[in-house]
């Protein structure tokens, strides 16, 4: 048997599988199709080679068998095949295709309901099966007695037969769009597979990849890697009903030049041990495996040597662990393949060996890496199809008519090599906790399941207050060892915790060990089916959450040594130990550092408070710590301030109140003093410009920033724009946000330059050259960098926002342009104006003389302080300042509002409570594009260089709050009771007290202080809005139920 014999002049991309196999069978020298074990239970008897001529004979045998027992189809009727991982799938599939059928290949591992659903969707009433899977077929028959089931002959009977040739009459031109096979998605996330129908042209796409253009000096990494010069064998473990297995068993031996699969025993599960036995019997040129199988062999003594002579190791279904991948890459080429059942694999270019874990897409393929909304610096792969991609994209054939396919697969970009990508996870994998925090569980899962005692790991927590880890011991793990498994793997989990953001980390009490009789549900490729596994362990998961937030174990907690008088040193050491035991990333913070600036959030506060109370209860058992709550941490958000609170309570019994005290205005005045000291003298050289202007936009990301940029780009008076941001992916985030408004094709970025800055550093962290260039050119700086969080205390805004503002002030004072500062403030900065000045109920466009006008929340106080700092800077230095006070920002004139913010939290919480609060605020919301245009007009206005001007930018025709409530009731089915805001807050806090776990679904709970500061509601708040008329002519349409409905439609209320 010769491995080098080929059909004459193959027409790559214009062939069908049945006819090409016939051509191979008719060659003078036969070619190897596959090598299979002689025994289905082990390899003791070795292997048997099956030639293309043998395989063609099996196909013809089954074609005649099907035509006799089922008949011939003229309309591509569906036959289902359920079998074993052997060559009978090839004979059945190609035999059925010759008879005019398409073949559904459901996984035998699916629940009967899933396979029946697939059969119903594809109008399948006949099932062909092998004897080994009779129990699976009987389960189908029990639920659907009308099914017709037929057991097919053994493989040996097929091989021994001498049937007449069963001709396949059609050529590629006639057959290309004929449906031939139905695979299904794994359902590894949702748990509900969907059928994907494929045609002859689908597989011709792979055949055609030899015709893809090459990049000079680079090597294509696509289906052509399987063209082994002189022929060769590869071992694969993927089953025929999974795309990787179907290609390995049916397409590789026929379309490649040539690669032949080696199969393991059908009744022996894949493992590292089996891989070792196969490699002892066979001379392999490649492996095609999930990484877990290769890693098992690698862990064995001398395991690395088995991989040394391979051409490459191709893998899918997950990444290698970094240590295993680094080791393997020293002896063979690692080929991570990416693809999907819907779209097949994406052609790549082979990267440098040191970049083995990264992928680079072939530039000829139509795709985009679009910045994801789910996580910063993460991109979603989006594929495109049109007539030009017909010969290179399976998407054209598997999903005809689809021109854009969002894969939902997320990737991260190489930090130094922008063209390289690494799989990060599925959008569906992203876990959103009850407080809206998101995290990707994949890094944790991969690290944990690499432990030698485990075969799987899965993180759950969707909509919960915190994450929980499920671990699956290896099948051979004795029951007695399972009891101690949590202790055994805990150090590994602690290491894995470092791979996740704080909100996603696993507490020791949130680990569930799988039971022997309930293994994880898995898809054909071996990946865990998340939803099915979570459903399987529903009761265990509920039990974990019912226990409430976990406490730090006594063993893991540093116990403070306390005496009748508690010293501050002892308390601060105690608080630090509790904090770092709860969240190790806080180990190196300073005593005066703001905890929120280091990432503390509402979920983390709950765990921290629970652990603090537990530790304090042991040290001072007669004390009541019910007063120690979320507000305590918000108002004392550093180690030193929290220590002071505990010091006074433990030694005097006094705990803090949160009324209006001198500490509020005192803290504000302290910050004003701090950030106005030493303001430099005004530059003696002033280059006044009448336009066109150069604008620096500090903060072009988020929701408002991109819209300000859009308006500046459209202004002819703006010559150039510098976007100054702290994030490396600011350009992608900004442009991605603009694409949501359809602006990606109309806007030109030739006048825009993005610079990475550190606004709190001298020269903004820029090089001397870049900073000097900015100083010479910039006339106006729009300062839009601020954290829109209504629950944070004032101190949390100091770094980097106040320090950044001072940097901008110093820059403006000393640069030759004497650049004007346009500061994006908030109506919250003057939200108490009518209370402080009752004789002046309408808030004017005026400077702030009394800091008591700020709303009673850190965000409003921070904006008030910033305005006062700029006011002092103007008075002392003479720099021109424009204050822009914005209110609640609406959606665009044509789109919806972002799914975030206090308004959404209030709506969702109201739905949980079953009541809506009345009179909360005036509906004076400006559309975001209108607001951005007004800000742009302010920035480009030809204002005097000695001017300080204030603009209140809210809707002049404010509507009552009831307009919004009517929208929720009439358009979104909020048929709930309406009550006053104080009563609503009472019910909110009462619900939180009654339901400790359920409180994490009450998103507005962390906004309680802000909402309480509104009293009965601030529906009566009105503002003077006259100054904008002098610089902007943009028209503002009326507010209506229809517009509000359009804005909140995307909130899934």
Describe this structure in words.
- The protein has 1053 residues and is of the alpha/beta class.
- Among the domains are: 44-201, Rossmann fold; 430-546, 2-Layer Sandwich (GMP Synthetase, Chain A, domain 3), CATH 3.30.300; 568-658, Non-ribosomal Peptide Synthetase Peptidyl Carrier Protein, Chain A; 693-896 and 925-956 and 1021-1038, Rossmann fold (3-Layer(aba) Sandwich).
- The protein is 34% helix and 16% strand.
- A hairpin with a 5-residue loop joins strand 23 (431-432) and strand 24.
- Helix 4 packs across helix 5 (134-143), helix 14 (442-449) packs across helix 16 and helix 24 packs across helix 25 (730-739).
- The longest helix has 20 residues, at 858-877.
- The two termini are 67 Å apart.
- The chain has a 7-stranded parallel sheet with strand order 30-29-28-31-32-34-36, sandwiched between helices. Strands 6-5-3-4-7-8 form a 6-stranded mixed sheet, sandwiched between helices.
Tell me, rounded to a whole number, the average pLDDT: 86
**Which stretches are poorly predicted, pLDDT < 50 over at least 5 residues?**
1-9, 550-564, 658-662
Alpha-carbon Rg, integer:
34 Å
SS-derived structural category: alpha/beta
Query: What portion of the residues fall into strands of 2 or more residues?
Result: 15-25%
Mass-distribution shape? elongated
Tell me the span between the first and last alpha carbons. Answer: 67 Å
Give the % helix: 25-40%
CATH level 1 name of the domain at 693-896 and 925-956 and 1021-1038:
Alpha Beta
The beta-strand count equals 38
CATH topology group of the domain at 693-896 and 925-956 and 1021-1038: Rossmann fold
CATH level 4 superfamily of the domain at 693-896 and 925-956 and 1021-1038: NAD(P)-binding Rossmann-like Domain
Strand order of the largest sheet: 30-29-28-31-32-34-36
Supply the CATH architecture of the domain at 693-896 and 925-956 and 1021-1038: 3-Layer(aba) Sandwich
Number of helices: 35
Largest sheet: 7 strands, parallel
């Amino acid at each position: 048997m010769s491995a080098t014999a080929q059909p004459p002049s193959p027409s790559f991309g214009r062939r069908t599988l049945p006819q090409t196999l016939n051509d191979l069978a008719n060659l003078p020298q036969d070619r190897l199709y596959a090598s299979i074990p002689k025994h289905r239970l082990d390899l003791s008897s070795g292997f048997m080679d099956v030639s293309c001529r043998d395989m063609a004979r099996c196909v013809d045998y089954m074609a005649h068998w099907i035509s006799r027992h089922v008949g011939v189809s003229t309309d591509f009727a569906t036959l289902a095949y359920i079998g074993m991982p052997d060559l009978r799938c090839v004979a059945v599939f190609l035999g059925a295709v010759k008879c005019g059928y398409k073949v559904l290949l459901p996984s035998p591992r699916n629940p009967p309901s899933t396979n029946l659903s697939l059969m119903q969707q594809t109008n399948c009433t006949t099932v062909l099966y092998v004897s080994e899977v009779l129990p699976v077929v009987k389960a189908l028959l029990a639920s659907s007695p009308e099914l017709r089931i037929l057991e097919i002959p053994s493989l040996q009977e097929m091989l021994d037969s001498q049937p007449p040739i069963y001709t396949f009459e059609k050529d590629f031109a006639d057959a290309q769009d004929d449906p031939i096979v139905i695979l299904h998605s794994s359902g590894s996330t949702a748990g509900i597979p969907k059928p994907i129908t494929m045609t002859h042209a689908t597989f011709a796409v792979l055949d055609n990849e030899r015709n893809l253009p090459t990049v000079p000096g680079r090597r294509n990494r696509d289906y052509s890697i399987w063209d082994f010069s002189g022929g060769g064998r590869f071992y694969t473990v993927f089953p025929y009903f999974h795309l990787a297995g179907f290609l390995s068993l049916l397409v590789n031996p026929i379309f490649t030049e040539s690669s032949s699969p080696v199969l393991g025993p059908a009744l022996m599960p894949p493992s590292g041990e089996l891989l070792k036995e196969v490699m002892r019997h066979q001379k392999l040129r490649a492996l095609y495996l999930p990484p877990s199988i290769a890693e098992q062999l690698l862990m064995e003594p001398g395991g690395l040597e088995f991989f040394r002579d391979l051409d490459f190791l191709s893998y899918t279904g997950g990444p290698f662990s970094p240590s295993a991948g680094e080791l393997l890459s020293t002896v063979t080429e690692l080929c991570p393949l990416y693809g999907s059942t819907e779209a097949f694999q994406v052609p790549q270019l082979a990267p440098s060996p040191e970049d083995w874990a990264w992928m680079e897409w072939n530039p000829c393929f139509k795709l985009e890496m679009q910045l994801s909304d789910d996580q910063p610096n993460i991109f979603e792969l989006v594929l495109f199809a049109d007539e030009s991609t017909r010969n290179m994209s399976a998407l054209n054939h598997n999903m005809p008519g689809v021109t854009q396919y969002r894969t939902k697969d997320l990737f991260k970009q190489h930090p130094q090599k922008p063209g390289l990508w690494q799989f990060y996870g599925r959008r569906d994998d992203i876990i959103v906790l009850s407080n809206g925090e998101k995290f990707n569980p994949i890094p944790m899962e991969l690290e944990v399941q690499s432990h030698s005692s485990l075969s799987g790991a899965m993180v759950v927590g969707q909509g919960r207050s915190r994450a929980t880890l499920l671990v699956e011991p290896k099948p051979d793990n004795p029951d007695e060892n399972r009891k101690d498994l949590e202790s055994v793997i805990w150090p590994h989990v602690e290491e894995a915790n470092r791979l996740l953001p704080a909100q996603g980390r696993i507490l020791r009490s949130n680990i569930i060990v799988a039971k022997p009789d309930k293994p994880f549900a898995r898809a054909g490729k071996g990946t865990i089916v998340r939803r099915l596994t979570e459903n399987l362990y529903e009761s265990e998961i509920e039990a974990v959450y019912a226990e409430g937030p976990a406490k730090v174990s006594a063993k893991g907690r540093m116990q403070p040594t306390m005496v009748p008088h508690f010293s501050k040193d002892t308390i601060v050491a105690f608080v630090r130990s509790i904090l770092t035991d709860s969240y190790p990333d806080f180990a190196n913070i300073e005593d005066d550092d703001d905890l929120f600036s280091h990432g503390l959030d509402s979920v983390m506060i709950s765990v921290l408070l629970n652990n603090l109370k537990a530790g304090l209860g042991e040290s001072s058992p007669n004390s009541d710590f019910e007063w120690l709550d979320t507000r305590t941490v918000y108002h004392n958000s550093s180690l030193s301030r929290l220590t002071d609170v505990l010091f006074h309570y433990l030694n005097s019994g006094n705990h803090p109140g949160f009324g209006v005290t001198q500490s509020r205005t005192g803290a504000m005045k302290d910050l004003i003093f701090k950030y106005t000291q030493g303001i430099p003298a005004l530059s003696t050289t002033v280059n006044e410009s009448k336009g066109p202007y150069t604008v620096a936009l500090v903060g072009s990301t988020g929701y408002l920033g991109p819209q300000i940029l859009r308006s500046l780009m459209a202004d002819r008076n703006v010559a150039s724009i510098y976007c100054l941001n702290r994030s490396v992916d600011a350009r992608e985030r900004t442009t991605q946000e603009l694409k949501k408004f359809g602006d990606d094709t109309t806007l030109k970025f030739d006048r825009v330059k993005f610079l990475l800055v550190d606004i709190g550093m001298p020269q903004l962290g820029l090089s001397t050259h870049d900073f000097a260039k900015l100083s010479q050119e910039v006339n106006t700086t729009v300062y839009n960098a601020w954290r829109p969080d209504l629950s944070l205390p004032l101190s949390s805004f100091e770094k980097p926002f106040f320090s950044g503002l001072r940097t901008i002030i110093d820059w403006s004072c000393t640069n030759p342009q004497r650049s004007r500062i346009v500061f994006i403030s908030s109506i919250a900065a003057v939200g108490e104006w009518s209370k402080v000045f009752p004789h002046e109920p309408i808030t004017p466009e005026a400077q702030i003389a009394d800091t008591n006008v700020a709303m009673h929340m850190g965000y409003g106080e921070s904006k008030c302080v910033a305005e006062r700092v700029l006011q002092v800077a103007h008075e002392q230095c003479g720099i021109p300042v424009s204050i822009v006070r914005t209110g609640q920002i609406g959606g665009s004139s044509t789109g919806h509002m972002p799914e975030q913010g206090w308004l959404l939290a209030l709506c969702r919480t109201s739905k949980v409570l079953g009541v809506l609060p009345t009179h909360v605020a005036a509906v004076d919301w400006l559309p975001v594009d209108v607001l951005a245009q007004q800000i742009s007009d302010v920035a480009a206005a030809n204002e005097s260089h000695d001017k300080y001007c204030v603009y209140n930018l809210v809707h002049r025709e404010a509507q009552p709050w009831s307009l919004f409530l009517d929208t929720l009731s009439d358009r979104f089915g909020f048929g709930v009771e309406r009550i006053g805001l104080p009563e609503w807050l009472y019910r909110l806090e009462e619900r939180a007290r009654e339901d400790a776990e359920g409180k994490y679904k009450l998103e507005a709970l962390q906004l309680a202080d802000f909402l309480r500061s509104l009293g009965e509601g601030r529906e009566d708040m009105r503002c003077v809005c006259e100054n904008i008329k002098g610089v902007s002519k943009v028209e503002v349409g009326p507010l209506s139920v229809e517009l509000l409905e359009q804005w909140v439609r995307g909130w899934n209320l």
